[in-house]
UniProtKB/TrEMBL annotation, chain A:
Main location, first listed in the record: cytoplasm
Keyword Cytoplasm carried by entry: yes
Annotated region (Jag_N domain), positions in chain: 5-55
Record protein name field: RNA-binding protein KhpB
GO cellular component: cytoplasm
Annotated family: Belongs to the KhpB RNA-binding protein family.
Subcellular location: Cytoplasm
Task performed by this protein: A probable RNA chaperone. Forms a complex with KhpA which binds to cellular RNA and controls its expression. Plays a role in peptidoglycan (PG) homeostasis and cell length regulation.
Annotated ranges, domain R3H: 140-206
Entry keyword set: Cell shape, Cell wall biogenesis/degradation, Chaperone, Cytoplasm, RNA-binding
One Gene Ontology molecular-function label: RNA binding
GO BP: any one term: cell wall organization
Natural source organism: Cytobacillus firmus (Bacillus firmus)
TrEMBL record, chain B:
HAMAP family membership: KhpA
Superkingdom: Bacteria
Localization annotation: Cytoplasm
SUPFAM superfamilies: Prokaryotic type KH domain (KH-domain type II) (SSF54814)
InterPro entries: KH_dom-like_a/b, KH_sf_prok-type, KhpA
Protein name in UniProt: RNA-binding protein KhpA
Keywords (A to Z) from UniProt: Cell shape, Cell wall biogenesis/degradation, Chaperone, Cytoplasm, RNA-binding
Biological process per Gene Ontology, one example term: regulation of cell shape
Stated family: Belongs to the KhpA RNA-binding protein family.
GO MF annotations in UniProt: RNA binding
Chief location: cytoplasm
The organism of origin for this protein: Sporosarcina globispora (Bacillus globisporus)
Length: 208, 76
């Protein structure tokens, strides 16, 4: 964490000097007034400068980027991060060699990193932020795969007349499947079990 | 590997200076014993072990290229 102690004729001037030194704006620092200063008689006798201490508040997004770089670096993967922020949603797009190691089987490593990054970012964020990690367009490819899977299993459920339980998935992946089949009137979908074992069941509409 | 565990855990806890990782090597396996400040236990385990599971997933992914099987234990 960066901090400086600055002085000035008045508190206001001291703060301005601190901001200039830290090269930042007032909303990104925390100010403690060490000494209010004294004007003195005619501004000469017994005057004392104002002293403030300014501490730069960590930026949640910078901390999250640093976390991702550090962790993947220690895993032996050098990455570049592209950050997109839309309100409370923050997306980090990772790129680099050996990125497959960060995605893992069915994205489980990427999902775990995403969860950990979400924890880190919200230690610093004032408003709750939602983190999405993506690499090599993985989320889009996974979404396409899930929609295909949903259609295939819906047909199977209709043909056999039986319910089909899918393997456990995180909530946003379940949502993709629910959404994909919401317009199929002959099929209904619901989720069963509790996280982390919560999974989708695809059933023909008339049974159950 | 030890450094990786520290890099993941330290930003998650309130007392990073209390994060310790001990290594126990055996024939076929390496066990990393992670200990944190008592007040941070909940932070590294999480609701229904969600955080612990995520840490393990990342650590095991990094260790997949190694010869020995890796385990991560969280101890008090």
């Amino acid at each position: 964490m960066k901090q400086v102690t600055a002085t000035g004729q008045t508190v206001k001037e001291a703060v301005e000097s601190a901001l200039a030194q830290l090269n930042t704006t007032e909303d990104r620092i925390e100010i403690t007034i060490v000494d209010e200063g004294k004007k003195g008689v005619f501004g000469i006798f017994g005057s004392r400068p104002a002293v403030v201490k300014a501490v730069k508040k960590p930026d949640p997004i910078e901390e999250a980027e640093k976390f991702l770089k550090d962790v993947s670096g220690k895993m032996g993967v050098t990455i570049e991060i592209e950050t997109l922020r839309d309100g409370k949603n923050v997306q980090f797009i990772l790129s680099g060699e050996k990125i497959a190691l960060l995605i893992g089987k069915r994205g489980q490593t990427l999902n775990s990193l995403q969860y950990l990054t979400q924890l880190v970012i919200n230690r610093y964020a004032e408003q709750y932020l939602n983190v999405v990690l993506d690499a090599e367009d993985y989320r889009k490819r996974r979404q396409d795969t899930l929609i295909q899977l949903a259609d295939r299993l819906a047909q199977k459920a209709l043909k056999t007349g039986k319910e089909i339980a899918l393997e456990p998935m995180p909530s946003y992946e379940r949502k993709v499947i629910h959404t994909a089949l919401v317009n199929n009137k002959r099929i209904k979908t619901y989720s069963d079990g509790n996280d982390p074992h919560r999974h989708i069941v695809i059933a023909p509409a008339r049974t159950r | 590997m030890k450094e990786l565990i520290e890099t993941i855990v330290k930003p998650l806890v309130d007392f990073p200076e209390d994060v310790q990782v001990n290594v126990q090597e055996e024939d076929q396996r390496v066990t990393y014993q992670l200990s944190v400040n008592k007040n941070d236990m909940g932070k590294v385990i999480g609701k229904q072990g969600r955080v612990a599971k995520a840490i393990r997933t990342v650590v095991y992914a990094a260790g997949s290229s190694e010869q020995k099987k890796i385990f991560l234990e969280i101890i008090e």
